[in-house]
Amino acid sequence: MGLDDKLTLFITGPTFVRDEVKKAALLPDFGHRDIENEIRFKPIFENLKTLWEAGENHGVVIIPGSGSNAMETSIRSLVGENETVLNVSTGAFGDLYHEMALANLKPGMKAVQLKFDPGKAIDLNKLEDALKQHKPNVVTLTHNETSTGVVNPIAEACKVVHKCGLEYNVIPLVLVDGVSIFGGARTPIEKIGVAMYSTSTQKGLALPAGFGLAVYSKEALEKAKRVTQRGYTTDLAAHANSAKKYQTLTTPNCALVNQLMVQLDYIINKEGINARFKRHEDMRNLTHTFVEEDLPGFEIFPEKHYASPTVTCIKVPTYFTQETLNAVKEELRGHGYLMDPGYEKMNAALAKQVPPHPMTMRIGHMGDITLAMLTTYLDVLKDTLMKHVK
Ligand SMILES: *Cc1c(COP(=O)(O)O)cnc(C)c1O
Predict the structure, then answer these.
(1) Is 136 helix (H, G, I), strand (E, B) or coil?
(2) What are the tens digits of pLDDT across the range 324-337?
(3) Atom of ligand 1 nearest to the CA of 145
């Protein structure tokens, strides 16, 4: 294996990048405070707003770094002193938001967590109980839990948050981590009532990593201006100020800006948003049929109703260990594919359950992966897995 060997990524990010997007990195250099900057960034900001179905009351910020930088900005800028944030977790990435809150505690600030078992989506009744108990000022949700392949009902969860808030007179701001689904399914943040929704470039948007992208409500920005200790690169108000000039607060990766411009134009004006979302549903359905019909002893890990359109998590036979899955991964490398042998920390926890819970593996089908590419991959994956089936 070496730098000349091409691997097609079927992991959950970074994901496959089309040649047209790779070539866009070669577009001319530019200065990020020069007029050239706006020529690239203005359509980027507008196209992102279109993808988010956002209007007058929302703004977009582009934050150098990755999705985590946008998420940390949301926590740091929108949870104030003496406030409580309720972090709702359905897996490793829900835990990440909680970890970020704990790393950014301010005087009197409290971070509490509501956790659900791996493979489960948010239970709205339990959410309601937690809201009544903690009366949080801010709630964080994971739209698509990448570790378990669960897509959470965020619209319904927001409704519960707003309804409970009315009862105790503090309407919490809802912060959503949509890193692994944005660009692969509808995210109508205005209709849902999200205060800040964060994502990144290297998953559903099928670009290299390098930006945290986020949309925020006017109300969120007004609050951010009053919150203390927002940091420098985690200050939503400062990012929003730069965005007014279609700029970033700190120097962006200019090659990635060129790529983002080309890719968003492709998504909206060439492939089309609805066709893109439909392709993701088709990829999920194709993967489910594959698991159910071609892989005896394997099962979809989450409840099917909450199965993600961008990543499928699969429960493997009981005799499959992490080592088996890692061996499968290496065999697929020989065929030119990078396979995902499951979220290792979660698999390790599943193995410790009594009796041990079977391991999981994942198939990332996000971004610009086509049905044809996926079909070919599933064929090779099947042949490789079957060598290990008893
Ligand atoms: C990948 C991922 C993150 C982390 O995003 P980075 O862009 O790697 O910082 C956060 N949340 C979810 C759901 C993810 O899938």
Answers:
(1) coil
(2) 999 999 999 999 99
(3) 13
